[in-house]
Input
Amino acid sequence: MALKGFWDRLRGREPEAPPAPVTPPPAQPPTPAAPGLETPPAPPPPPVAPLPPLPAIQVPFTAPPMAEVAPPAPPPPEPPPPRDPEAALAEALASSEPEPESATGGGWFSRLKTGLSRSTARLTDAITTVFRKRRLDEAALEELEETLIAADLGVAAAHRIVEGFRKTRFGKEVSDEEVKAALAEAIAEILAPVAKPLEIQPQRAPHVVLVVGVNGTGKTTTIAKLGQQYRGQGLKVMFAAGDTFRAAAVEQLQIWGDRTGCAVVAPAKMGADAAGLAHDALARARAEGMDVLLIDTAGRLHNKSALMEELAKIIRVIRKLDPSAPHSVLLTLDATTGQNALQQVRIFKEMVSVSGLAVTKLDGSAKGGVVVALAQEIGLPVHMVGVGEKAGDLRPFTARDFARGLVGLGE
Ligand SMILES: Nc1nc2c(ncn2[C@@H]2O[C@H](COP(=O)(O)OP(=O)(O)OP(=O)(O)O)[C@@H](O)[C@H]2O)c(=O)[nH]1
Output
């Protein structure tokens, strides 16, 4: 239970409450057994006497006006038929072709902006209310700081931004639009040092990317999306299904491999040694002239030290073949976990030398501001962001676009 609690907290979930104690039903008085029978037949129910008429009770009742009477609830909608995972995957891949700008209403930026819309609302609704033509005094600065913290930007970034406002605009009258524009600039400034693409060096033959992260944060999907992108660039790509404990993860990677034309090295049986698998995959990748090898890993073992040992072993073993591998260690973070993402980075940094981050599920989160907290407090490169489940929904992270998208401004 304690370890389950640890993993739940790491994933940003409240640990499950222990099951409620079962209360035994109240004891029934024993039924007297009929002589010679173990189970007496139930006695016939006594005839029900007609109830005497109830005295009339007057309950004062005022009918609500008609408009307030709730209409009868419509019948519940039919639950959608269960989706065949393969069909869902095929659909995601089919729609992952680079779409023309017109089809996406302005291309990647508008997708980013749409994806961030929940986070944007959280951040800007308060700004719009507070700063409609208002003098930037102490009270306004305090409200701004609270808004930024509530939008998951973290205390340090919120403080830094507010101090910037104090220096440049204190005492001036500002509108919500001015505040948003200045905010976008301040956020972009914080993000700029960490906005670095994941640079693949095919001459490493192959460039090895070890992908780590808590389970469910999007490791397998991110690998698949990257595979698709690299294939599009004409690179030869191999996936190693190193999450050998989860049959579904191996299967998922195999399907993505088939669809994207990436080779897949999968374990012969579940629970196989992940380090051995990574070693075999690297040997094969070298023999087959691959440019990139993406290694998936388990996100959860029975405890933190077991996971740490597994990751360390994978690295030790692949270094027997290439002492410089892995060339990148990519940590996936689920944006919906908000501030908990910072804790995940700290824990994974203790286990392995993380070289950069992929922040996923920004589309399903109102906590996209956490990327600013990550930049300010962790400072690791943010290579890419995921704003959807489609293969095309993983894009390089750029400070200006993200900052403007987050505060709801145009390109
Ligand atoms: N909306 C949305 N969903 C995403 C994104 N990235 C991944 N997902 C979904 O998140 C779920 C978990 O993703 P996986 O790639 O299986 O996560 P994982 O870290 O490999 O999980 P384990 O295999 O359990 O360790 C899947 O349903 C993905 O489709 C994203 O950017 N946006």
Confidence is low (pLDDT under 50) at residues 14-90, 92-105.
